[in-house]
Amino acid sequence: MRLGIVGSGMIVNDVLPILKELDIEIVGISGTERSKQKLIELKEIFSIEKVFTDYENMLESQEIDTVYIGIPNHLHYEYSKKALLFGKNVICEKPFTLNMDQLIEIKELAEEKNLILIEAITNQYLKNYEYIKSNLKRIGDIKIIECNYSQYSSRYDAFKKGIILPAFDPQKGGGALMDINIYNIHFVVGLLGRPNRVEYVANIDNEIDTSGILIMEYETTKVVCIGAKDSTSEIRTTVQGEKGSFVVNGATNSIPSVLENILGDRKVFNINEHEHRMYSEFKEFKRIIDEKDLKSAKDRMNHSLLVMEIVDKARMI
Question: Which residues form the GFO/IDH/MocA-like oxidoreductase domain (predicted)?
Fold first, then answer.
């Protein structure tokens, strides 16, 4: 995998050390003219070959076979589509797109061009999550799942003053559901699949959900996903079955440790292969792209489509 990176914000700064640790070749980094100095700094720190302030110029590079898109939500569709049109594989940060129609369009484009298109969603690749998924039957019939990922946003104070940044802009894929609660949805869907019913109850301020509760109903399981950017609480997820439970102590994007309690036999464990939440996903992305593993990419896409289906239903309520 020879990578071109789009963006220079928080998520890109977060992933760059991991890419170097995995020996992923970073050919170029692209951003706006306004961010040029930051791009140059990242180039020097992480030994990136080239800086681009024109996205198409980066896409024209024959040295790059894959683009990682780490920019605001509302730009994901446009930048993914353009990369695919230039014949590049795409790794796109969550949420994949703003709606199902956009996602289906770029999915079909990737299939037409025989390219890998995959969503960067950390929890699906973590060993702690894989353990919960593969051991779910040990806790019996699942009755209740409760996910609470509530974290006071660093941009919320500005929002209250009337300064609308992308994180709270309804036109730019902002809000609690599309940002922080999306990890909870991925967590649940990876375990249980498509729900029978979806309901979203939110605190709406200036046309955006600053916090909300997503309810998903399955045949025998009731799920509550809480996501908040206007308040904070203990961040924890509980999966309750007739014979026991799994408790995630921490956010559903990192799953830092798990308490397993089966018929009174309790243990706390952390088998994640790396302390950084993005390590495992990029290790797998590298494998998928290097091996041109279209089947794995299709499986991941089917999961992402199901999550987007739920998000679309929730936003319509």
Answer: 138-246
* 2-120: CATH architecture: 3-Layer(aba) Sandwich (3.40)
* Domain residue ranges in the chain: 2-120, 124-277
Other beta carbons within 10 Å of 193:
10
Q: Could you tell me if residue 103 is left (phi over 0), alpha (psi between -120 and 50 degrees) or otherwise beta?
A: alpha
Cα separation, 104 vs 15, in Å, equals: 27
Distance separating alpha carbons of residues 113 and 87, to the nearest angstrom:
7
CA 190 to chain centre: 13
Burial of 155 (0-12, 13-18, 19+ CB in 10 A): middle
Give kind and range of the element (H or E) at residue 200. Answer: strand 197-205
d(CA 141, CA 198) in angstroms, rounded, equals 21
6-46 per-position pLDDT tens digit: 999 999 999 999 999 999 999 999 999 999 999 999 999 99
Q: Check if CATH label 3.30.70.3190 holds for domain 124-277.
A: no
pLDDT of 316 strictly over 90: no
